[in-house]
Design goal:
Blueprint lengths: L6 H28 L5 H8 L18 H5 L1
Length: 71
């Protein structure tokens, strides 16, 4: 069985990592200490196309497979 990421999965992985490094990592410690987070991050996740990955396209999601979501 081949577990290597395909080009589309690699793109999702890379862009998700870049988003988290830019938007989440600088704030993670403060959010953890405050036991809350800036709710504005949800809009940023949506703008980046990172919400609804596992939802069918008919319902506004990406319709991705479990292997896409896990990547």
């Amino acid at each position: 069985m081949d577990f290597a990421l395909g080009p589309e999965q690699e793109l999702i992985r890379r862009s998700t990592r870049e988003f988290c490094e830019r938007e989440v990592l600088p704030n993670a410690r403060d959010w953890d200490r405050a036991e809350t987070m800036d709710r504005g991050i949800v809009a940023k996740l949506a703008d980046a196309g990172l919400l609804g990955c596992g939802l069918p396209e008919a319902y506004g999601g990406m319709g991705s497979t479990p292997s896409h979501t896990a990547s």
